[in-house]
Amino acid sequence: MRKLIFLFSIIQISVQVNAQIDARLFRHPDVSKNQICFVYGGDIWLVPKTGGTAMRLTSSTGEESYPRFSPDGNTIAFTATYDGNADVYTIPTAGGVPTRLTWNALNDRVVDWHPSGNSILIASSRQSGSQAFRQFYLVNKTGGFPEKLPVPYGELGSFSPDGNQLAYVTRITENYPFKRYRGGMASDIIIFDLQKSTAENITQTSATEGKPAWVKDKVYYVSDGGTAKRRNIYVYDRTKKTHEILTKFDSEDVNYMCAGPDELVFEAGGQLYLLNTTTNKYSEVKIAVLADMAGIMPRTINVGSRVNSYDISPDAKRAVFEARGDLFSIPAENGVVLNLTSSSGSFERSPSWSPNGKYIAYWSDKSGENEIYLYDIQSEAEHKKLTNFGKGMGWNLMWSPDSKKIAFINDRQQIQLISLPGGEITEIDKTTEQT
């Protein structure tokens, strides 16, 4: 009997340990005086600021995003798609039934709480007349008709402690297809005076700034300026009119940042950090989640509506499709559907069938960067890596009629040619920079 009890205890411990997941896929973290909230697996989770095991606050089939603590830390405002549309909800940090605050047919996104704690700043395109941009509104914490702010347009923002000013951006830069963007669509941090209806651009650089967070008399933001062009956290001192870089990540980017009463919480390289705004020192917060792991169980998914690219075999008897990051060989009429890659950990795209019908060339990031691979149809197993670019991006692969060369365009606007079987690369042409 003692042996059975001991064995049962070991099994229970094993189940509990296996149920803990190192949360590296969290999104939209925020911090209060005592807790951190974040989104993981489409739900909102809570964990002490010291780290540890997080507990799930919501478990709806809808997806939650942008959770923000109220100033007193007792309530979380968030965006959710419970009824097929993104609307604003609140929920007590102690748990309970979410309360819906907005009912517009267009999407509403939580941005910040007003310092008074009585209303919530949201971004919505409900009156913009275009889905290309959004405007700011204040909605009461108990609901009601949102009040439009006199800001022309905006996406993310943070109030000054007295609520009279708003640091904001007009674009969410992480939606851009490429990092290190330099151009007219690069966002700046703007401070809008709600009393005087005046605006001041406090960055005005060629880099991209975002994620403004106002703490006391300083505005914190994320920028990819600097020599490494990595997203790091900067601070703007309103009194001294100075900018200072606080983090020095040179191989990862700060992807999201929010402010609490005296700290910043941010994510970089899949890890969560807390930054003390008094000392400017930061350290990692170790977080694990307890979950039933149903989301990572093997399952069958219909990808018919998620086809992005394709090509047809030379004899027109089959076609190759890219859907959900895998390549599928599909018969023209009768036959089996073959998953040619079956790679849940990488993204395969832009398949191209050789004119002789023997190979399929495609792009894959299985090495960590975008490279060109070759699938030998006759061997049915061999996937040969043709390139070693190490970084960059490329587009559609075009075969020569003799199936001995592949042409493509890369992110440097170069037309390049790969010769088979050796993989030698020749530059055919490139654009020249205009000055």
Major beta sheet, specifics?
A: 6 strands, mixed
What is the share of helical residues? Answer: under 10%
Question: Number of helical runs?
Answer: 1
By helix and strand content, what is the structural category? mainly beta
Mean pLDDT: 89
The counted number of beta strands is 38
Radius of gyration: 25 Å
Q: Identify the overall geometry.
A: globular
Enumerate the spans where pLDDT stays under 50 for 5 or more consecutive residues: 1-19
Strand order of the largest sheet: 1-26-5-4-3-2
Q: Which percent range describes the beta-strand content?
A: 35-45%
- State the distance separating the first and last CA atoms: 84 Å
Layout of secondary structure:
Blueprint: H1 2-19, E1 20-22, E2 27-31, E3 35-40, E4 43-48, E5 52-56, E6 64-69, E7 75-80, E8 87-92, E9 99-100, E10 108-113, E11 119-124, E12 135-140, E13 147-148, E14 156-159, E15 165-169, E16 190-193, E17 198-201, E18 209-215, E19 218-223, E20 232-237, E21 242-245, E22 254-259, E23 263-268, E24 271-276, E25 282-285, E26 287-290, E27 307-312, E28 318-323, E29 326-331, E30 338-339, E31 348-353, E32 359-364, E33 371-376, E34 383-385, E35 398-399, E36 405-409, E37 414-419, E38 424-430
Parallel strand pairs: 5-26
Antiparallel strand pairs: 1-26, 2-3, 3-4, 4-5, 6-7, 7-8, 8-9, 10-11, 11-12, 12-13, 14-15, 15-16, 16-17, 18-19, 19-20, 20-21, 22-23, 23-24, 24-25, 27-28, 28-29, 29-30, 31-32, 32-33, 33-34, 35-36, 36-37, 37-38
